[in-house]
Amino acid sequence: MKSPSITYLVSLVIALGLSTTAYSQNALPINAAASVNGVVISNDTVEQGIQAALSQGQKDSPELRNAVLGKMIEISLLSQQAEKDGLANSERANSQLALIRLNYLADLELSTYLSKNPVSDAEVQAEYNSEVASLGPQGLIVEYKLSDIAVATEADAQAALARIKKGESFDKVAKSISLAPNKVQGGAVGWVQAGQTLPQIAGVLTTLSKGQVSPKPIQMPQGWYLIKLEDKRSSKPPSYEQAKGAIRNGLMQKKQFEFLSQLRQGANIVVR
Fold first, then answer.
1. N or C: which end of the chain has fewer CB within 10 A?
2. What is the pLDDT along the chain (272 residues), one digit of tens a residue?
3. CA nearest neighbour of 148 among 180, 109, 114, 123
4. Which residues contact 63 (CB under 8 A, 6 or more apart)?
5. What distances in angstroms separate CA 228 from CA 146, 147, 166, 203, one per listed residue?
6. Which domains does the chain have, with CATH numbers?
């Protein structure tokens, strides 16, 4: 059985804190799982470690619980030795401990906010209904298999379009001049929905026939584009039961974004 790693659990232990109260080696206080040289590891801390392991997909078992406690004993031994070696107050230790604390508190704040503002089943259902309604009277998802060429100037785009009109393949031109990372795949983007692209692309994409290249260059914030519609397909949307998990995750991300936006608006942020 794979046990939780020290590197994974150490941040949890640091964030929660280990009791440094000294006790007799043979007399543990209430709620103590173990004592290492008099430093107590509480049952609550061990339970947090177990929950962290479960969140990684491991199954609860006596072996897992023993493994988590064993790792925390190792952490305590190593941290005590670091204290003896004078590492605890080093600049490196202080910066890393501060970062671990910041990350833990940030995760705790987000999880607390979402627990107080959960995504309801009604919200998920409403979002599903809205997405289905947006598909139009036929109720089908339309996907486009797209390739593109990205260049810096309109003149470069016009030159590329002229080469294609003279008979060069779109993928050959893309491989030779495109500035986008997908040039090595001949400009292939893959299957997308119109709503997943920027409006400038979507407005042209939906007018093209299979195999057709955009009749003129498309100006984008990052340059000029030519696109080719490789293929087109329609499919029925997933059922509510199939889609609700992804929709719930999307709505949770939206809530997190809105919460962070509120925090930014009320903050005094200075960037050098």
1. C
2. 555 554 455 455 544 444 444 554 556 788 889 999 988 999 998 998 899 888 888 899 999 999 999 999 999 999 999 999 999 889 988 999 899 999 989 999 999 999 999 999 999 999 999 888 888 777 888 899 999 999 999 999 999 999 999 999 999 999 999 999 999 999 999 998 887 888 899 999 999 999 999 999 999 888 999 999 999 999 888 899 999 998 999 899 999 989 999 999 998 988 88
3. 180
4. 1
5. 6, 5, 16, 13
6. 6-90 (no CATH), 141-235 (3.10.50.40)
* 9, 71 contact by CB (below 8 A): yes
The alpha carbon of 133 is separated from its chain's Cα centroid by a whole number of angstroms, namely: 28
Letter for the amino acid at 177?
A: I
